[in-house]
Structure to design on (1106 residues):
């Protein structure tokens, strides 16, 4: 029986550290690791479910090839690599290497993911994506305003007197933060949630502002106006460290009355919110990623940022805007969001021409025409907007390779599926976008069947296709650890042996972000007025509320497609322990909207708009406000998922994000 | 100072990690720990209350008290209530008596399972698995304060290894603007159903018939005929055995006559079977009188089994075996006065129960039948003399069976939901808000 310290590599705020007890090459216990101060109580139910996931009977452990009838058959690894090598070379020779599309999702974090780039570079380059489905509008908003994206260490929030959770469902997506919010509340902190939906997070708050989706900037700007009018300002901070206060003040046109009309929040409550913000120092605002997945997402985050800047709630304990904390991403150059942008790409071999937000349309119109695709760490068929176009683009290809642990909706589209490693089967190093730790994730299990890490797949494929294998680490975990050691030597202060002892905070860490009031912006100040915003994204240099209703169609319900506590995007929903613990997900609708459509709890319903329709189960819930239908992302097609079939492929105002939450739909009872 | 579960509902978001950790350790067939979410649909007047609960290891433990085979015992060191699964006969009586849904029946194993406080882990100084895996610190394992302050209104006043801290009586989140959320009154609360217990229905029905026959024989002054009694008793004993998860351990079930109504019921069942079968062979009045008395005691002891789990709520149910037996016996003895008297009582109880509790909304057909049949029979009895008309007899038995089936449908052991739903009283919160 051995015990290891490891870290969860999912695309999640928490990046929990936990202890794993291993017995006979199988996990026997998963236990908390109190040394990580952000996650001392240990992982969530998904983390516990690795116990099952690591040895799930549903796991793909041998290469599979699609037969003409659409089913899959097991083939030998040699044969799989032969076919893949042969087809890729053939397509490269005939159509050029850029007719091959390389798609990588966010399914597994780690530095070793870079090794894939080395392979494709040596191969001659490929077409790939720019942008990101998740969070870049907000990242860019924070970067433009503050020069970098960081916040105080997560546990500092217990010192806040006011916490505003703005569009984040902490209870389901960052559960460890609930411990700190609860501690603050036990000490008398007022907790406010601003969210259209009464989430489990709202259950833990004093007040829920149930705002109309997409109108958050209007609320923020109205509150900013009241703060200025009632002089709840930190004049010293504004004078010394803020650029554009006067321009901002004179640009404010949204009165509380106007904001009330837009947001659905009564005037008196908007004024109350301003009073709470003005008086309740120190204040931490925690925006989620949902509210920036609107077309106006970047400007929304900038408008919310203005509230902490005007009141000087930054650079101090218990204060700040906790959007994302990239201080542990010390090995990334350039850092998010810049690395998502097409023009930043220094590596000529990669043609970043396909927008993540418009994946299907981008693949269909790519130049040169796409002939093959290699998909790893992702499930774009159901996670990218406008799924029907994505499926169409996949069908148009001549050859598709998917590397995955399970038979996902995307894997079903593959010609060849290669089994993917899980988090316990190769050493790696990961950061976190919430906690300040750099963490080592050791290899603790031998992979089952013929599973091998992507790095080894690439190595063998390079050998087979006659590429130079010198740029790739050789097979075996020792080679990976050597590669990691070399990779992290670019940043002084942390060695692999330090990391092997447990999570490490980088030397450059500011526990209280911006405590030196140094902002890495063109002016060196926090920029309420950002000339770059205008130049890069052609939006107002000042935060403003824009919502172009004319582009929205006539359907009556706003479709929100958030994440669920039981899954990370499309992962985990296939495990027994998750299915045993949660009701089968579906679309949630308010009792009033359900009555209008004669929908009863548990009915099969069809949600539809011009792009298509999805059949799923109705959950009539008073948590959902009228005018809204909530259908989480990450539900597989066979279990009644696929919200993205309905969603418009549209980029956000900045950062090349995806505007998931601007789609309008209607719903009806399924008669068949 | 004793250690126990300390639960802070204010930190619990209903993530299910505790229950999952328990399942991962103990198997997925049963849930030894449950996360109860009250007002899950979040009606705006009410707070949402999340409660993670397994076994409270109560000082006054009803499982331990009522187990017919004494499979439960208390661990001296930790104070934990533990179950010896090798003794358990799978009668599920503890699942009826525990208000907290702590014992759970594992149909694969045929026995009950329950929280053992992770005894092995604790003895090594570790926390139980559920506590270990709570990501928000809502569930802890620590020294108990046993203060009255930490006792929620809906937790019965009994010392246990479970304590609340923080605000267990939360105000609902203030919602702005209120009108944007539906204002429907709170949904009907989820009720725990003991699922239809066919074997028990048939057992108690057959016993009713057998006891009535013996009583009738006594009143009529004849001796019962073996061909009527023998199959009924054989049938009822086999039906009762079918209910058990572990049939071959059933002989142990007399072990707790001192405090288990179930043990007593089984003891009287054996006595009645013995006496009534003896009367077939040895025809002496003493035996017959004893058999008839034991029959009456038996139906009463059957009814007693269901009293405690429901807080005496079933005492006035029209499907009680005692009143069924009286009705059948008065019919068999051909005494219209008694029959009409018992019939009217039963009809009254039936109407009262239907109006007071369920209405006709669920099992409506059965409920209608249970009331209609006595009405028809009473009318029939009043219009002409009671005769041993076989159609009449079939009607009567059908009515009794319908009532007995309803008895099991209506049998809902008291549980946590009751307490909490009473606590989350809509009007109370309305008032509090002013």
């Amino acid at each position: 029986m051995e015990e290891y310290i490891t870290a969860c590599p999912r695309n999640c705020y928490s990046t929990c550290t936990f202890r794993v007890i291993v017995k006979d090459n199988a996990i026997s216990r998963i236990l908390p690791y109190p040394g990580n101060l952000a996650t001392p109580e240990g992982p969530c139910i998904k983390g516990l479910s690795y116990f099952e996931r690591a040895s799930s009977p549903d796991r793909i452990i041998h290469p599979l090839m699609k037969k003409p009838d659409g089913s899959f058959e097991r083939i030998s690894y040699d044969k799989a690599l032969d076919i893949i090598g042969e087809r890729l070379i053939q397509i490269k020779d005939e159509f050029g290497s850029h007719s091959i599309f390389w798609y990588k999702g966010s399914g597994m974090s780690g530095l070793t993911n870079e090794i894939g780039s080395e392979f494709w570079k040596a191969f001659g380059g490929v077409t790939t994506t720019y942008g990101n489905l998740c969070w870049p509008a907000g990242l860019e908003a924070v970067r433009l305003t503050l020069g970098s994206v960081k916040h105080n260490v997560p546990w500092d929030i217990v010192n806040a007197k006011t916490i505003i959770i703005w569009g984040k469902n902490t209870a389901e997506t960052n559960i460890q933060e609930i411990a700190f919010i609860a501690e603050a509340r036990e000490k008398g902190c007022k907790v406010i949630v601003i969210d259209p939906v009464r989430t489990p997070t709202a259950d833990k708050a004093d007040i829920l502002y149930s705002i109309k989706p997409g109108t958050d900037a209007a609320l923020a700007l109205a509150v900013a106006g009241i703060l200025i009018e009632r002089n709840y300002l930190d004049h010293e901070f504004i004078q010394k460290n803020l650029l554009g206060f006067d321009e901002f003040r004179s640009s404010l046109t949204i009165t509380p009355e106007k904001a009330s009309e837009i947001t659905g929040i009564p005037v008196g409550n908007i004024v109350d919110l301003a009073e709470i913000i003005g008086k309740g120092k120190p204040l931490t605002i925690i925006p989620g990623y949902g509210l920036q997945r609107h077309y106006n997402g970047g400007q929304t985050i900038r408008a919310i940022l203005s509230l902490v800047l005007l009141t000087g709630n930054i650079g101090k304990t218990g204060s700040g805007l906790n959007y994302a904390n990239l201080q542990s991403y010390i090995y990334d150059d350039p850092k998010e969001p810049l690395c998502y942008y097409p023009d930043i790409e220094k590596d000529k071999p990669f043609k970043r021409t396909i927008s993540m937000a418009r994946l299907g349309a981008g693949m269909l119109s790519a130049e040169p025409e796409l002939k093959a695709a290699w998909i790893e760490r992702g499930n774009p068929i159901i996670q990218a907007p406008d799924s029907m176009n994505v499926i169409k683009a996949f069908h148009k290809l001549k050859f598709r390779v998917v590397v995955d642990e399970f038979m996902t909706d995307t894997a079903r589209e593959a010609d060849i599926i290669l089994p993917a490693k899980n988090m316990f089967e190769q050493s790696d190093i990961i950061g976190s976008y919430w906690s300040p730790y750099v963490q080592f994730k050791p290899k603790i299990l031998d992979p089952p069947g013929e599973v091998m890490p992507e790095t080894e797949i690439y190595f063998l494929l390079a050998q087979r296709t006659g590429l130079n294998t010198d740029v790739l680490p050789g097979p075996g975990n020792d080679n990976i650890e050597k590669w990691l050691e070399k990779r992290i030597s670019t940043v002084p202060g942390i060695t692999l042996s330090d990391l092997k002892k447990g999570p490490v905070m980088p030397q450059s860490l500011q526990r209280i972000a911006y405590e030196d009031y140094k902002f890495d912006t063109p002016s060196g100040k926090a920029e309420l007025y950002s000339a770059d915003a205008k130049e890069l994204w052609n939006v107002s240099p000042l935060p403003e509320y824009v919502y172009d209703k004319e582009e929205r169609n006539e359907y009556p319900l706003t479709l929100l497609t958030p994440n669920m506590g039981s899954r990370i995007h499309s992962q985990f929903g296939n495990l027994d322990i998750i299915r045993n613990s949660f009701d089968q997900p579906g679309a949630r609708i308010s009792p009033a909207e359900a009555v209008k459509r004669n929908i009863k709890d548990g009915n099969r319903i069809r949600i539809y708009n011009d792009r298509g329709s999805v059949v799923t189960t109705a959950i009539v819930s008073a948590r959902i406000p009228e005018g809204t239908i909530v259908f989480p992302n990450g539900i597989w097609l066979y279990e009644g998922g696929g919200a993205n079939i309905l969603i418009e492929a549209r980029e956000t105002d900045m950062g090349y994000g995806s505007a998931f939450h601007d789609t309008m739909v209607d719903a009806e009872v399924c008669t068949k | 100072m004793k250690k126990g579960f300390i639960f802070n509902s204010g930190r619990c978001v209903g993530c299910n990690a505790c229950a999952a950790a328990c399942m991962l350790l103990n198997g997925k067939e049963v849930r030894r720990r449950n996360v109860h979410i009250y007002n899950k649909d979040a009606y705006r007047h009410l707070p949402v209350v999340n409660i993670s609960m397994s076994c409270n290891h109560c000082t006054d433990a009803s499982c331990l008290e009522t187990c017919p085979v004494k499979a439960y015992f208390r661990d001296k060191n930790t104070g934990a209530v533990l179950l010896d699964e090798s003794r358990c006969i799978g009668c599920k009586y503890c699942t009826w008596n525990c208000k907290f849904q702590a014992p759970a029946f594992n149909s694969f194993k045929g026995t009950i399972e329950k929280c053992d406080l992770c005894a092995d882990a604790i003895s090594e100084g570790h926390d139980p698995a559920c506590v270990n895996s709570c990501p928000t610190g809502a569930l802890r394992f620590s020294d108990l304060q046993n203060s009255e302050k930490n006792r929620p209104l809906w937790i019965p006043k009994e010392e246990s290894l479970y304590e609340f801290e923080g605000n267990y009586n939360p105000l609902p989140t203030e919602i702005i603007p209120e009108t944007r959320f539906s204002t429907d009154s709170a949904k009907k609360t989820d009720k725990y159903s003991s699922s239809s217990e066919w074997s028990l229905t048939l057992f108690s029905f057959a016993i009713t018939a057998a006891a009535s026959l013996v009583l009738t024989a006594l009143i009529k002054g004849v001796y019962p005929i073996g061909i009527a009694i023998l199959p009924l008793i054989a049938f009822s004993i086999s039906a009762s055995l079918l209910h058990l998860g572990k049939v071959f351990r059933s002989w142990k079930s007399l072990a707790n006559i001192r405090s288990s109504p179930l043990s007593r019921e089984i003891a009287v069942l054996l006595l009645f079977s013995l006496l009534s079968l003896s009367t077939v062979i040895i025809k002496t009045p003493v035996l017959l009188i004893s058999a008839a008395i034991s029959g009456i005691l038996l139906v009463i002891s059957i009814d007693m089994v269901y009293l405690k789990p429901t807080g005496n709520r079933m005492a006035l149910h029209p499907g009680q075996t005692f009143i069924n037996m009286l009705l059948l016996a008065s019919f068999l003895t051909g005494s219209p006065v008694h029959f009409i008297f018992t019939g009217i009582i039963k009809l009254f109880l039936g109407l009262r129960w239907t109006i007071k509790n369920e209405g006709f909304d669920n099992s409506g057909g059965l409920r209608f039948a249970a009331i209609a049949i006595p009405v028809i029979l009473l009318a029939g009895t009043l219009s002409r003399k009671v005769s041993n008309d076989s159609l009449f007899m079939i009607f009567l038995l059908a009515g009794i069976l319908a009532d007995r089936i309803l008895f099991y449908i209506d049998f809902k052991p008291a549980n946590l939901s009751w307490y909490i739903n009473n606590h989350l009283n809509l009007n109370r919160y309305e008032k509090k808000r002013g």
Chain A touches chain B through 55 residues (CB under 8 Å). Chain A has a mean pLDDT of 95.
